[in-house]
Amino acid sequence: FSTIVTNVSFDDTLNVFTVATASFDPNADKRHKYEATLVEEFDYCIWAAGIRGKPRIPRSLLTLLRSGICLVDENINDTPFTGIILHSMHALSPEKLIPAVNGKRVVLIGDSDSAVDLSLHALKIGASKVMVLSRSGYGDCCYMGSWPCRKNPETQKMEPIVEVHVALPFRVVENGKSIECGPVVWNHEEGVYQVDESEDTIVVKNVDTVIFCTGYVPNTDFMSESLRVNAEDLFSLCWTAPEKFTMRENPLTPDVGQVVPSRDLGFSGNLIPGMYRSVLISNPKMMYIMDINSEYPLLHLESEAWMCLAFCVGDMNFPALEVVEEEMQKQMLEEMNIAYLRWSIDPNYFEALDELDDDHWTDDYTDSRTIQMNEEYLGYYVRLIARNLKESKYPINFGTYGDLNDLGKKLVKLGLENIKLRHLLDPSNEETEWKTFRDANPKGLSSIYTGETPSPLPKPWLLLKSDDNIIDISNAGS
Description:
Elements: E1 3-11, E2 16-23, E3 38-42, E4 45-47, E5 54-55, H1 59-67, E6 84-87, H2 94-101, E7 105-109, H3 113-124, E8 129-134, E9 149-151, E10 158-160, E11 162-166, E12 168-173, E13 178-182, E14 184-187, E15 192-195, E16 202-204, E17 209-212, E18 216-217, H4 233-236, H5 253-256, E19 275-276, E20 279-280, E21 286-288, H6 297-313, H7 321-336, H8 339-345, H9 347-354, H10 368-391, H11 406-423
Parallel strand pairs: 4-21, 6-17, 7-8, 7-17, 8-11
Antiparallel strand pairs: 1-2, 2-3, 5-18, 9-10, 12-13, 13-16, 14-15, 19-20
Helix pairs in contact: 6-10, 8-9, 10-11
């Protein structure tokens, strides 16, 4: 504990890692450069510091806010944004977050898990309004069934305190107080989302604070170049499907047909370029425990930890490179057969789904076809976990990659129930004023081991305080 790693390198001659460390000084400046006080050698090295080492902020958007230079016309130079700019990492710093949010109009850029959590957390600490800007329109915020509401004194109607817009900022207006945003389109040649200048724009007025909920990258600066895995490769490297690839039929096939794959396919995050399972292909003694994209992150990390242990003690052996390549190719093709994974890999398939009607059955989470699609999607993640745990000799068995047992199937069902808690919130319900997905009735959730159900919260989540006793055993299972 209280240790700073200053350098990690690998000696190819001695076949060992050299790790240099120093004692952490809690009083030191954040930019303090530590000098190594201890150097040790190890046979294996496991990265377990997670992927959230450094904030990932789109430089173009940060430059826009700080300089006022319009993104779609650099000749337009407006006043820079006059409010506060933060990253979701500051949610862990109340001294920064609370003054920036309490009583303020807040814009969140990004629409995934951190934006959902931060939206609700902002309301809890007193934000007057939260506006989420989504790039793709497919993040968790866009699929939230309902947000807490407040009565509009002018119309006397209940209106969500959180608004979600599928748009990105491109201009600072009104003397640095407001932000003009536009819908986005995917640029195939550049491989990026861009503002669609042909569509109507929106102006988010009187913005006090902008918070980037745009993710993180691992902080591997202290590791030698040859030992690093580059998470950014997930967004820059591509692969190509076999020429005669045909997707397995699923409930969406009658609506979109057989979509020809894009020439350049991305990676879903379940496979990291340069990695096999948790092992760095170029140096099998270097391993990484990190969750990129799993729907079951804690159990996924557990499976990775056990695989690392198995590789270290000899319970698992690193296969020949041709076996590695064959297995990875099979997994990439399997992901192309799962609709809710393929859309994030294949731009052509993304466009096919994006053209479906707004009232398409995929937006109805009670439709049997939607349930089947989600079950296939979640089942894939559970099958990966089951495979990894079985091969690493984990003490609990979830079945195999090809055949989940009852415990594995219960884990899939648990994931389906979790989806319902978020997506089936009813915006017309009289409880919508205060209800969040955390307030949903948990009776559909149950332990895959004991069958016990969790206790409901004793009062609305927005009203709960850190010192409240939130466990009421008398309600468990009711």
